[in-house]
Amino acid sequence: METGNYRSFYVELIDISRKFITTQYRLPADVLLTDDLVDLMKKNNTISQENERVVEDVFVRGDLVKFAKTFPDQQTMEKDLADITAFVKRSSKDLEFENLRKDV
Questions:
Q1: Contact 54, 87 (CB under 8 A)
Q2: pLDDT digit string, tens, across residues 2-40
Q3: Which of 24, 58, 60, 77 is most buried, by CB atoms within 10 Å?
Q4: Distance (Å, rounded) from C-alpha 40 to C-alpha 45?
């Protein structure tokens, strides 16, 4: 991010996030296109709406950056990193809620 290589930043951020989603939520995020992943998250109802929104916003922006359709500024990249970090921290609550639903 500091070097201004926004494309590499988003490629890596999204790759790490996809691996996390695949492991944490047992969703095939590592093989799905962004639109398909977002649809699956909404149908699956395992991820909170707040977390869904973060993933969708960051992944869609990342796709646009990867294909040179938009050029984010430093502030946007920092916000996206902070949002994904918060998503990771909140993910345990998603799993706790999912486990409670299964016990009912």
A1: yes
A2: 777 899 999 999 999 999 999 999 999 999 999 999 999
A3: 58
A4: 8
